[in-house]
Amino acid sequence: MEAPPTLVLDTNAWLDLLVFRDPLLDGLAGAVDDATLRLATDPRALAELARVLRYDALRLDEVCAAAHLAEAVRLAHTIDVPSMQLPRCPDADDQMFLEIAVAARATALVTRDAALLGMSRRMGRDYGFAIIEPAGWRSALAPDVR
Q1: How far apart are CA 47 and CA 43, in angstroms?
Q2: pLDDT tens-digit series, residues 76-87
Q3: What is the CATH number of domain 6-133?
């Protein structure tokens, strides 16, 4: 059996999915639960998500923030990412998402970040994954499960 396509979500995409319930991401968690899609992350990305979930602007209490983080851990496969030399993202904080995508052999990295989106052509050509906005996540699925 062939492995399902793998996506990497940046921190804001995780927030869109877990906190804001962005309709553009409707069905994503279900696709993971149905094993038609796989999400990948690493300890650095989870630590960043844990930190961001505590931002005052989100107005989440500790219980709610912990529940959102637990859901991310449940949904995503946490992988080890070896040290690697990749093209540098203009925002150094986002470099880890490129590294996770390469290590996970991801189909796509989901983001709204302009700097990451600007790297899509090169990463696709050189590393085999797309960098897409949340609205395009279904494009990573096989045609019969979209």
Answers
A1: 6
A2: 999 999 999 999
A3: 3.40.50.1010
Supply the DSSP symbol for 9.
E
Specify the 3-state DSSP secondary structure of 39.
strand
Q: Where are the domains of the chain?
A: 6-133
Q: Does residue 71 sit in helix, strand or coil?
A: helix
Please name which of 5, 46, 1, 19 lies closest in space to residue 137, comparing C-alpha atoms.
5
List pLDDT tens digits, range 57-104.
999 999 999 999 999 999 999 999 999 999 999 999 999 999 999 999
Rounded CA separation 133/141 (Å): 15
Residue 44, C-beta contacts closer than 8 angstroms, at least 6 positions apart: 81, 96
Has residue 43 got a pLDDT over 90? yes
Q: Beta strand 108-110 with 6-9: parallel, antiparallel or unpaired?
A: parallel
Reported pTM = 0.95
